[in-house]
Design goal:
- The chain is an alpha+beta fold.
- The strands form 2 sheets. It has a 3-stranded mixed sheet with strand order 2-1-6, with no helix packed on it.
């Protein structure tokens, strides 16, 4: 994702600043703190908030800008197809293991069409959750995913996997279409 830019009076731009302490991050970290302790007491809640604020100040992250809308029907189709892919891949991996024959693996490069970091992360996560493939490298600069894929005997199989990965990206883009970035004036 391209950063939100602020335009200065002289016409130059600079990245927008972000707050180190983000309320949702503090809430989430506090809930994790309480889950680790296994109980909820006033002292633990206050301690959790303090630890969360300290973590946010010590390790600041830019705010997450999903920069996308949601199309419910396309999202339902994406989730449904993902579930089918997981089941189908599980059966295929089981078959490969039970056949006990030699098989070849491959590292397949997939050049994503979208330049969104959010889309790249979502596609990479979904591909890694499907049995038989795992992301071994993600290049943010070129939006390229490198995936280790199980049982790829030839180039045609690698191309089929690449097409499936790009189809997944298109389903993600249909379900969560990116919104254009608005330039923020200073």
């Amino acid at each position: 994702m391209s950063p939100v830019l602020r335009t200065r009076r002289d016409g130059s731009t600079r990245p927008a600043r972000y707050r180190a302490v983000q309320p949702l991050a503090v809430l989430w970290l506090t809930l994790v703190w309480l889950a680790l302790w296994g109980e909820v007491t006033p002292v633990l809640v206050i301690g959790g908030v303090l630890v969360a604020v300290l973590v946010c100040v010590m390790f600041p992250l830019p705010p997450i800008d999903l920069a996308s809308g949601v199309r419910p029907l396309a999202l339902a189709a994406l989730v449904g197809r993902f579930a089918v892919d997981v089941v189908r891949a599980s059966i295929q991996v089981s078959g490969v293991v039970l056949r006990r024959r030699p098989f070849r693996n491959a590292v397949v490069a997939v050049d994503l069409e979208s330049s969104s970091d959010f889309v790249m992360t979502l596609v990479a996560s979904m591909l890694s959750l499907v049995p038989g493939s795992v992301v071994v490298e993600a290049r943010r600069s070129t939006h390229t995913l490198f995936l280790h894929v199980l049982d790829v005997p030839d180039r045609e199989s690698a191309e089929a996997f690449r097409r499936d990965a790009l189809d997944l990206e298109q389903r993600v883009l249909r379900a969560l279409p990116p919104r254009p970035h608005k330039e923020v004036r200073a």
